[in-house]
Amino acid sequence: MKFDKGLMAGSSTLLLLTLLESGDMYGYQMIEELSRRSNDAFQMQEGTLYPILHALEKEKYLSSYRQLAPSGRERKYYKLTRRGRELLADKRTEWEKFHRGVNDVLRGGADALA
Amino acid sequence: MKFDKGLMAGSSTLLLLTLLESGDMYGYQMIEELSRRSNDAFQMQEGTLYPILHALEKEKYLSSYRQLAPSGRERKYYKLTRRGRELLADKRTEWEKFHRGVNDVLRGGADALA
DNA sequence: AAAATATACCTTGAATCGCTAGGTATAGTA
DNA sequence: TACTATACCTAGCGATTCAAGGTATATTTT
């Protein structure tokens, strides 16, 4: 299909990077934020989230640091790197194209009446 | 993530069923039509297409028949069944939800300014 | 006429990705 | 004390895409 490999992954990554654009977050928080911002449309599973975060950090799209919460619990925060912001921009463009492509087809093709 | 399993597959199936809504088509033709209607955004591979068509037919979402082209070549046409139209409706709804969810997140969440 | 390309169908195998299902540990609540 | 919520993690399954191959016929080029 082109669009890199895997669209779901493309979307998951896009979504997570987007969250981090508005500030550093820890994994568990991202799941909640994603649900909230999507009006409960997305409930990402931990088994989906953590491997993606680890892969993104390994590729230097994210960096992480540990921080103690007021509660006393330790949390692992993730932060967008420069590279990460570039990836986010690419993923956004990719999503726009994909999204437009699907909608064009659903509307009956490029030459369909508006 | 919910949304059935796999979004790409969800999209591929949605796209193919949508094509067949406007008339019976054979596989090779679907690839061309998909490309045309999406303004060349989508170039589905044969290795992606045929297994999907076979699976959809097996599940009675599609039926097929062979027909000779004027050229003399034989083509295998696929036709939407009643079940297939229902599946299409479901997939469309699913896409709308997903698409809205992603855009909500990209715009900064449900409570972002319009 | 021969060779190359386009049409048209198909399958196998590698790679990728999400999810289920498990695990660990700590803080708060019943 | 036990249960739930928070917070992190991983292994393995299933599903899917694509590259790469195969077969065969029609058309175009050389």
What's this model, at a glance?
2 copies of one chain form a homodimer. The first copy, chain A, is built from 4 helices and 3 strands, in the order αβααββα.
Q: How many structural domains in the coordinates of chain A? A: 1
Low-confidence stretches of chain A: 1-7
Reported by name, the CATH topology of chain A is Arc Repressor Mutant, subunit A
Q: What's the order of the H and E elements of chain A?
A: HEHHEEH
CATH superfamily of chain A: Winged helix-like DNA-binding domain superfamily/Winged helix DNA-binding domain
Strand order, sheet with most strands of chain A: 1-3-2
The overall pLDDT of chain A, averaged over residues, is 88
How helix-rich are the residues of chain A, as a percent range?
A: 55-70%
Broad structural category of chain A: alpha+beta
CATH C-level class of chain A: Mainly Alpha
Roughly what fraction of the amino acids of chain A lie in strands?
5-15%
Largest interface by residue count? Answer: A-B, 39 and 39 residues
What is the tally of helical segments of chain A? 4
Q: What distance separates the N and C termini of chain A? A: 26 Å
Oligomeric grouping of the chains: homodimer
What is the number of E strands of chain A? 3
The CATH architecture name of chain A reads Orthogonal Bundle
Q: Shape of chain A, please?
A: elongated
The whole-angstrom Rg of chain A is: 16 Å
